[in-house]
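Data card: per-record layout.
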Amino acid sequence: MRLCKRCNRVLRSGKSIERGYGLTCWHHHLNDLEQQFLKMQLTIDDILNMDEEERTDV
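The structure for this 58-residue chain is written out next.
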């Protein structure tokens, strides 16, 4: 029996079992990943406001 990685409910469809998430939890997971990605992004203003030493690290 395969369980959802997010809510621990039983997964029924082959696609859900393959992903490890039910449909609703899969959408929540993708949204979480997108939010994580957006947090790590730098804007051009962020880069321009950095001093020279910080820019070389980017």
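Known properties of this structure: The first helix runs from residue 14 to 19. The radius of gyration is 19 Å.

See the next section for split statistics.
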